[in-house]
Amino acid sequence: MRVPLSWLREYVDLPATETGRDVQAKLISAGLEVETVEPLGDGLKGPLVVGQVLTIEELEGFKKPIRFCTVDVGRANGTGEPQEIVCGARNFAVGDKVVVVLPGAVLPGGFAISARKTYGKTSHGMICSADELGMGDDGSKGIIVLPPEHEVGTDAIELLQLVDEVLDIAVTPDRGYALSLRGVARETATAYGLPLLDPALLDVPGPNEFGYPVEVSDPLGCDRFTARTVTGLDPEARSPIWLKRRLQKAGMRPISLAVDITNYVMLELGQPLHAYDRGRVQGTIGVRRAEQGEKLATLDGVVRTLDAEDLVITDDRGPIGLAGVMGGANTEIDDTEGTTTDVVIEAAHFDPITIARTARRHKLSSEASKRFERGVDPLAAAAAAQRTVDLLVLLAGGTAEAGVTEVIAPSAPRTITIPADHPDKVAGVAYGRETVVRRLQEIGCDVYGQDELIVTVPSWRPDLTDPNDLAEEVIRLEGYENLPSTLPKPPAGLGLTDRQRLHRRVGRALAGAGYVEALNYPFLGEHVFDQLSLATDDPKRRVVKLVNPLSDEEPALRTTLLPGLLAALRRNDGRGSHDLALFETGLVFHPREELSVAGRLPVDRRPTDDEITTLLDALPEQPRYAAVVLAGAREQAGWWGKGRPSDWADAVEAARLLAGEAGARLIVRGGRYGPWHPGRCAELAVVVDGTERVIGYAGELHPGVLKTLGLPARTCAMELDLDLLEEAGEGLPKAPHISTFPVATQDVALVVDKTVPHADVEAALHEGAGQLLESIRLFDVYESEQLGAGKKSLAYALRFRAADRTLTVDEASAARDAAVSLAAERTGAVLRGA
Fold first, then answer.
1. Across residues 548-569, what is the average pLDDT?
2. Would the pLDDT of 833 be above 90?
3. Angle, to 10 degrees, between the axis of helix 241-249 and the axis of helix 257-269?
């Protein structure tokens, strides 16, 4: 919400010395997020005056149209003689009033104006456009043409209100009232302790039977509808400068008088309005839910197919507007032909959830929908309609009809009961009853009672629903900066759990191995499972969907970390970073077999153990996963030697690294799953409580998946269940025992079929060697015709050591032979050269 300080001063009599920065500090202290204060006209220096075009000479011989003009600027140039100016714009004619900047002036941005020779003529100044003066878009797409009533030589800086300050406020969803000058002025008045001149305090006539006929069929979707009619509008009337300038400063483009007035009142009071061309409305105006598949052409020129949940405005023909979002094209006020003389003003209050869902469903966010979905003051509708009528009568010469229509669903003010000392307990500060009552009254509440306060919430604050909301209001107005700072005192002996320590070690280990952590949103769209080539019955396709997702394209909680990581890799690769190694650890979400609905926990006491258990049982299962993705070079080339690209082995090594941090023995074997290349995919498993469990996969991704997702060639990935890995581990790693006895190393080279996985051979050697084996390492893979067709040689280094003695050669050799024997039995391995 952009709030011009000059406009704000109309409702709050701020001291003349207060600047935009001063007001910003006050509002931030009161809890409003004022992001910036924009100084308009910063550096602007006159003379800048109103001029009248006397003559226009078209200059020939140039690639673009150039005009040599003489302009009457009165005595502003010191001589009274016409000012000669060269201009390339063509949207003005002889006799028009324009804005002229004379030599010696400085425009915004430090652009100094002086007499200069151009296109064979000397230009003594410049005829200005809105952009050149920093005014924003005024719809003219050229030179500013002023109304004829302004006198030549008038100071244009004051006339166009070029010098001002604009506060840019980021309005949070719970403070919809701040999307209006009225709401911001109320906060400003409270912050300064000054009275508020409420623009909604107008004399509004009561409803009668002569108003335009309105029928509301859905009072839950529309609980208030006000209609007023103005006739005899001057089709040639245009928005005055002050109205256009206020709209521009607030970030809106002037369009036409009727539309500008409705936008102005919306900004002023926070109540969205719509003006219908009465001649185009046929019969009674109605409010109902749309019929499934109905069509409506909205003002943006798009024909929309309506949903049965959409709330629409209708006449006898059908829908003429998408309620609270955008009007229809068939009742639009036509200013181009100047045929609209009678208008019907709509000021209604719609259900916030309905409007929010309609705007999101049609991907049509408007200034009206932004306000309705955050909550609009229902009692402001009649005042907003009256304000619109008054401006149309004043500026367009219209006549307000006596008929007033108001359709109101019965309702009662909302009341909240709160102990007088509740804000004290929440804040840990003794405010006292008088302070609590005063602060609640300042935000518009009616307060009764002594120790137990009965608070009637103002109509413009739908966000106030329980005692804690009221406590928050008291605390923010008293100043968050005044809350005492106290450090918590944790009981002795507590620290990180073993699980938390593992998560930290995993992150440090991957970072130390050259991976960069990438944190991604935990949302995905179900189409990603097709992109990853997951089977139709894959458990990862069962997702938990959000009722109110941030994006309709990603309504589900993730069941895998890969989509987010691969998207981050693709984004970075597209921006020129081709050598990438990313990792993430985070929760994934799996729906439970039996679904239940979580109840709302109390806030006035600690929930019972049963209530907490019921809540936890309703939550999805949330195991923690770890994943890595790699592309490009794993080792860079340099003076030290050749580099190498990342490959499937690096992904497997990342899994081994995590298993080492968890103290678990990782089983690696050939696998086949979803996005991985079937010939370069490793299945990862561990033993938990005597049962082997698959915890993930690693390797190179399938070329088809890479093409679908737009990823670099040979991209690799690994993902595993970190919780299962922790269960299989031995807890925190222990300091290694340094033996005083020497190690005995035995190398073996075994010839096996190419189809035999290295993991199977290694497992057999490990088991056959017995307890004397300290470690085993594959150090060479060799293929040759000499070995035979379909054969390969695997060379292993076996390290043997006893804890209590020095091994003899015979003991080490016997252990090696036992290992080779079991490998031969299980895998058909033969000693190379035997």
1. 93
2. no
3. 50
Q: CA–CA separation, 247 vs 268, rounded Å? A: 10
How far is Cα 643 from Cα 636, in angstroms, rounded to an integer? 4
CA distance linking residue 251 with residue 240, whole number of Å: 17
Query: In angstroms, rounded to a whole number, what is the distance separating the alpha carbons of residues 660 and 665?
Result: 8
User: pTM for the whole thing?
Assistant: 0.70
Residue 737 domain-assigned?
no
Cβ proximity of 319 and 313 under 8 Å: yes
Of 181, 339, 317, 177, nearest to 247 by C-alpha is 181
Q: Under 8 Å CB-to-CB from 504, ≥6 apart: which residues?
A: 496
**Helices of type H across 161-211:** 181-192
The answer on 52 and 37 residing in a single domain is no
Length of the chain: 834
Residue 120 covered by a domain: yes
Distance (Å, rounded) from C-alpha 723 to C-alpha 316?
63
Task: Identify the band that residue 346 occupies on the pLDDT scale cut at 50, 70 and 90.
Answer: very high
**Are residues 193 and 136 in contact, defined by beta-carbon separation less than 8 angstroms?**
no
pLDDT the model gives residue 140: 67
Q: Rounded CA gap, 477 and 31, in Å?
A: 8
- The lowest-confidence range among 358-372, 423-437, 720-734 is 720-734
pLDDT in tens, 66-76: 999 999 999 88
The whole domain housing 441 covers 415-481
Does 609 reside within a domain?
Answer: no
Place of tokens 């990823």: 711
Residues 398, 353 share a domain: yes
* Predicted local confidence at residue 13, as pLDDT: 95
Provide CB contacts within 8 A for 600, sequence distance 6+.
Answer: none
In this structure, is residue 316 part of a structural domain?
yes
Q: How far apart are CA 445 and CA 464, in angstroms?
A: 10
Q: Provide the pLDDT for residue 764.
A: 92
Are 421 and 451 found together in one domain?
A: yes
pLDDT at residue 370, rounded to an integer: 94
**Which of 355, 374, 408 represents a domain boundary (last residue)?**
408
